[in-house]
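Continuing the batch. This is chain 6 of the set; chains 1 through 5 are on the previous pages. Same settings as before, nothing changed between runs. Recording input and output for traceability.
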Amino acid sequence: MKNKTTINEGSRFAGSFKQTLKGLVIGALILTGIQSPLQAQEVEYSRPSWYFGLAGGANFNFYDGSTYKLNDAFTPPVTFHKGSGIGLFLAPSIEYYKPDTRFGFILQAGLDSRKGDFDQQLTDCDCPADLATDLSYITVEPSLRFAPTKGNFYIYGGPRFAFNQNKEFVYQQAINPDYPNSVAPADVVSDFSDVEKTIISGQIGMGYDMQLSKTTSKTQLVLSPFVAFHPYFGQNPRSIETWNLTTIRAGAVLKIGSGKRITPEEVIVKIPEVGFVVNSPLNVPGDLRVTETFPLRNYIYFDENSTDISKRYVLLNKDQVKDFKEDQVEVFKPNTELPGRSKREMNVYYNILNILGDRMGKNPASTITLVGSSENGPVEGKVMATSVQKYLVDVFAINASRIAIEGRSKPKLAEEQIGGTRELVLLREGDRRVSVESSSPALLMEFQSGPDAPLKPVQINAVQVAPVTSYVTFKVDGADEAFSAWQMEITDENGVVQNFGPYTEEEVSIPGTTILGTKPEGDYKVKMIGTNKTGEIVTKESTAHIVAWTPSKIEEGLRFSIIYEFDDANAISMYNKYLSEVVAPKIPANAKVIIHGHTDVIGEEAYNQTLSDKRANDVKTTLENSVSKLGTAGVTFEVTGMGENESSAPFGNKLPEERAYNRTVIIDVVPQK
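Output for chain 6:
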C-alpha cells in the first residue's frame, strides 16, 4: 500500500516570504545606519523624485472554474473546481513621483507565483484526489500612481503583462479508506498543456510611504506597505477549459532615492512702515476740576483659605465711625499699594464696608442680604458672610436683624462657567466673595436692582489727569509678523537720547510728559529698532513734534462709569434708564463726550477688543439718542474700545477687584466754550 504524500504549500511559502521580509528589514537598517553620519549635518535635502528599490510580498491566490484535462497524456477521473494558495511576489521597483504633486509612475518586474491547491475531490471509487500547481510567471507591471492629498497615501493601477515560467502540477490519488489494503496509484508530476505563454490583465492597489530618512540626509529611504487586487478577468492560465484565478497581493516596497540640496532662498527683509501719531488737546492754561461719579461694586473679595475680611479693605474701630464721611474717604486709606492712576478710585472701593455701614446708619429702614460664595462649599461661604455682618454690627452698631446671610458654592453671577478650562485661577479668585444685595433704593445705584446691582455711586472731586487720547502713539504696522521685539531711541534737540521698549505689540502709547519732562513741547528724532525672527536688526527713522497736554480752562468736567459682570456685553439694558435720566441731562450743549471701553485680561485679546468696542458703542448709542430727545444741540462723541490694553487700563489686573473695575465703560463729559 502506498501512503498519500501531502504537499504543504503554506509552509514552503512561509520560509521564502519570511526570508524576503527579513531581507527588506535588514536592508532598511543597514541603509539607515549608513545615513546617520549625514543626519548630523545642517544641510537639508529635498525629497527625491526617482526611487529604486525592491518590492516583496505575498500573493493570496483563489482558483475558480473547471479543470479536467491536465495534458494530452493524463486526464484524472474527476474535475477540479475551486482552490487557493499563497505564492511569493518579488520584483525590482522603479518609481517616479515628484513631491507635493498627485501623479506619478511605478514600474515593477519580477517573480510572480500563482501556486495553489485545488479543493480535494472524490473519484468514482470514493478515493480522495488532490491537485496542486507551482504555476508562476515573470510579471511586468507598469502603474499610474495617484496621491489624492499630495501626501504619503497613494493609489495605483495599470496593466499586468505575465510571461509563464512554471506550469508544473502534482496529482495525487489516495485509497478508499474503506479498503485499507488497496494500493494507491503513483503520483503524477507533469506540466499542464495548453498554458497561455503570455497573459494580459490588470491590477489596482494602494500604499503608504513611510519616510525612514530625515531631510538632512541626501540618501532618502522609504518603506511603503501596499495591498493590490488582481481580478479574475484576463487571468485564465490555459486556453482550454474555464480555470481562472483572482489574486490579492500584500507586501512592502523598500525604495531608495537621492535628494537635491536645498539652497535657502534669500530672504528680503521688508522694513515695516512706522506711523507716529501725536494727539495734543487745546493748549490753554488752566485747571479742570472733574466731578467723578464712581460706581461702588457690591462685592467684597476674600483671600484664598481665609474667611476673615481681607487686610486690603479699610477697617475702622468704633471711635473712628463718628469721623467717617464718604465724601472724605481719602482720610482713611488702605494698606495696599495702589497705582497712581487708580489710587483715588480704589481708595473709595476699599472703604466699601464703611460706606455701607454709614449709609445703613443714616437709613434705618434699609436692609441687606450678604451672600457668601466659596469653592469649599456653602458652609464656608456663610462664614465669610458672617464676618462682614459682624463688622457692620460691632463697629457701626447695625441691628443684626437687618442683615440676612446666605452661603453658596458659587455666586449667582459666577465668573467660572461650566466646562471652562482656561485661566481658572483668576476666575475662581473673582468668585470667592461676599455679594451685597438689597432692595432698598437708598443703598443702590439709581434704577438698579438684583444681585449684580452696584451700590449707590460715590462723588469724587479731583483735578483731571491727561486722558489716554492725549498720549503719543507709535505704531509699527506688521510688527507682529516682522519682529520678535522692537524698541525706540528718541533724541531731543540737544542730543539727549531716551530709550523705550522693548515692545511686541504693534501699537504703543506713551504719555507726552514722559518724553517731554517739564518742557511744554519739543521736536524729536525717533528711531525704531526692530529685531526680526532671525536676529537681524531693522531700523526706521522719523521725526515728531510733541506737545504736552494741558486741560482746557473751563469750570467743571464730569466723569461717569458703568461696570459690567464678567464676559457680559449686554448689560447696557440695565443701564439704559441710568444713562438716559441721570447722565444725559448733565451733558451741556456743544459738549464733547469721550467714551472709553475696557476689559480685564482674562480671555483672548481679540475677543476682549471686540467686547470693549461693543460696550462703548452701546453707551454712545444710548446717550446720543437721549441728548437728541432732550434737545441738547452740538454734542460730539469720541468712542474708543481699549480692550485689555494694560497700558491704558484704568486699574491693575492683579487683584479680582481691580479686574472687576476694568470691566467698564468710562464716560467723560467735557464742556466746550
